Hints:
Layout: H1 2-7, H2 14-22, E1 43-46, E2 49-51, H3 54-64, E3 71-75, H4 81-87, E4 92-97, H5 100-112, E5 119-122, E6 135-140, H6 149-153, E7 155-165, E8 170-177, E9 182-190
Parallel strand pairs: 3-4, 3-6, 4-5, 6-7
Antiparallel strand pairs: 1-2, 7-8, 8-9
The site of S-adenosylmethionine (SAM) has 25 residues, from β2, α4 and β4.
Amino acid sequence: MVTHQIEARGVADERVLAAMRKVPRHEFVPPSRRESAYEDRPLPIGSSQTISQPYVVAVMTELAKVDAKSRVLEVGTGSGYQAAVLAELVAEVYTIEIIESLATGAARTLEHLGYGSVRVRHGDGYRGWPEAAPFDAILVTAAAPIVPPALLEQLVVGGRLVIPVGDGIQQLEVHTRTSTGSRVERVFPVRFVPMTGEVRQSPR
Ligand code: SAM
C-alpha cells in the first residue's frame, strides 16, 4: 500500500511513510472489510461514516508538518486510524468525534493497539479543544462549509490547519496561522463526509 499507492504518488516525508507502514489499518475496519483494508480507498466503518483513503491520510499528515514535539488536534476521529498515524509522529494527540459509538470504538481500538495516550473525546469539534490549546497542527477529517474560527484561534503562530472545505466537491486547504491572521493554500479537490453539528448553523 505505502510503496505503490502513497510513495509513488508523491508523499516523500520518511517519517510519515514509516508511520503509514507501521499502523495496522486492518485493525481499524470492521471484520467484514479486512480483506480490503490495504486498498487505496475509503471504507465504511458504520454510522454512515468512513475510514479515509490511505493516500489522503498520508497527504494530510505530511501537510501538517509535525515533529516529535508537536501537539496535534484531530476533528473527526472515525475509526481512530488517522489518530494512530499521528501518534507515531508527535508528542500529544487529541481527537474529537461527534458520534458517540465511533468515539467509544476508536478509543477501545487505540488502547488495544498501544495508542492509549491518544485523548479521545465525544463531542462536536467545531469549537476545538480549548483546554488543550494551542496546537501545532489541527486536522479536520470531515468537510466543513466554512473554516471554524475557533480552530484557527487554537493554533500557535506558524501552526497549520489542514481541512477539506466546501460542499460536494471540496478543496483540501492548509491555513497557516500568522502573527496578523492566517494565509491559505489550496492543495487539491477531495471528497469527505460532511462535518455536522454547529458548523451547519454558521452563516456562510
Ligand atoms: N479520521 C477518521 C479515521 O481515521 O477513521 C475518518 C473520519 S470520517 C471521514 C469523518 C468523521 O468526522 C466521522 O466519523 C464523523 O462522525 C466525524 N464528524 C463529523 N462532524 C464532526 C464534528 N462536528 N465534530 C467531530 N467529529 C465530526
